[in-house]
Design brief:
single chain; 490 residues; alpha+beta; Rossmann fold; 2 domains; seven-stranded antiparallel beta sheet; six-stranded antiparallel beta sheet; 18 helices; binds adenosine monophosphate
Length: 490
Amino acid sequence: MKEVLSDKQRLESLYHGRFELIKPRGDRMEEECGIIGAFDPDGDSVTDILYYGLYALQHRGQEAAGIATSDGENITYYKNQGLVTECFEDDERYKYLKDGHIGIGHVRYSTAGDKSVVNAQPLFVHFKGGDLALAHNGNLINAECIRSRLEEQGYIHQTNVDTEVIAGLVARRASTLTIEKSLEETSKDLRGSYALVVLEKDKLIAMRDPLGIRPLALGRVGNVYVVASESCVFDTLNGELIRDLHPGEILTIDKDGLHSTRTQVPLESKLCVFEFVYFARSDSIIDGVSVYKAREEAGRRLALRDNVKADIVVGVPDSAFPAAIGYSKQSGIPFIEGLVKNRYVGRTFIQPGQQKRERSVKIKLNALKRNVQGKRIVLVDDSIVRGTTSKKIVEMLKSAGALEVHMRISSPVVTNPCYFGIDIAESKQLIGSGHNVEEIRKAIGADSLEYLTIEDLMKTVEGSSCGFCTGCFTGNYPMNVDTESKYCPF
Ligand code: AMP
């Protein structure tokens, strides 16, 4: 017999808990994400903190968002596709989360394939020991291997996100161990990068992978403890950064305060250097280094090695502005806006299909004819990945009357894909893999092209409390990707 639900019941089943539109698993997805967690010891709602915190992390993922909260007894969650504001625009959905004084949130940025809401996070799981919600930033290179072994053993999966593999492994152990201990044991099975926030009914747990590849920091907003991918969250909420989580740290926040344990970690950590190049917000401080300062220094170092004659320095908005300013300060060539960005377009880089990507560059950026006409331009961007953006921008500036365009990139040549959570395409799509700088210059139509050296890049992050993964620039990954991606613990 078909069940007839009242409008209110339908809303509740849709938004208050366990009911979602399930679509089949599609292609595997690479992800770049942002995560947050909050615990209010006074028992007040943390929903607004999570919501505005996710808003501050929107640059890390624009495809889907979600929040899970607990009132100490029950976990409630809501997730959907779209920007944070779109996802939670309907108060009906938001209000169910309001009771929670502990919670986690996630913004997601996937690149291809199935965009079903079922792949959005937090992921909610029910297991023998209770309920859990998890949110994850990073990429497990052995997830597929573990997943198929589990499926051979009769497990079923609903999503194609790595988080489900982590959840499965944690839940297997958690009927006999605490979640913290399960996480510690599970981390021995996992290969790749993971910053995690986990919500149990009465506690928040945050974990950073043993190499510290993805960032995760602890802060305080009033008396509420907050963990977040980036420190810009604490500033946004009028709070303060306390410290970064250590690589391999498992931090529990509950009514008794903070408790920290650490898994076995390698001697040197491997924070992703691309966070500083492009991904993180420039007002964040990661592992002791200001992202803005690193970018400005990259621009300064580019200029130090340069003797090009030019009239103006133009930065590609917004991520290359600090480097363009650094270049301008060092060279004495004035920094002038030469490109205007449509602020309502997100990080369009992700668009599947080359034609779409090319069109989206044009929709996103336009040349400021008045400022560039008749000028010799130093054009600073933070990176060239496929080369689509640079080619289009050079074309744009030239058709707006620029006399010369000298492209300067505030990072080294991207020669290798990323396996650890940054969407850097497979080798054959990378213009820097298989082409030398002169060939790239020709392909993008610039009058000259220079990149930052890897040595200079490492100088920009000097003073940090960690080591770095430079895999996309050097091919030196923090682990052997071939063998470790086949690692299955059982
Ligand atoms: P491309 O057109 O592929 O060369 O893209 C390079 C542009 O995309 C640069 O302007 C960067 O600011 C930006 N970008 C670089 N890496 C990424 C990434 N992983 N995700 C999104 N955008 C990126």
